[in-house]
User: Which sequence fits this backbone?
């Protein structure tokens, strides 16, 4: 079993206009190579993207440039 770090882009259900980013480290992948985000993390979020590794996001939807 491999362990992966991923960057997750998401909206909180209570702040739907501000996109957020977090890095989850050491997630196990299953036999098909897919990651499963922990239920406690997914709760109350709308997941937009799961990206491989620790990604530097320069601007998110809702940010001022």
Assistant:
């Amino acid at each position: 079993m491999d362990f992966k770090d991923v960057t997750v882009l998401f909206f909180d259900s209570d702040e739907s206009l501000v996109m957020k980013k977090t890095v989850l480290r050491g997630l196990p992948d299953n036999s098909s190579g897919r990651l499963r985000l922990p239920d406690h993390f997914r709760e109350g979020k709308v997941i937009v993207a799961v990206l491989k590794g620790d990604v530097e996001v320069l601007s998110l939807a809702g940010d001022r440039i």
Observations:
- The beta strands are 3-12, 15-28, 45-52.
- The chain has one domain: 3-52.
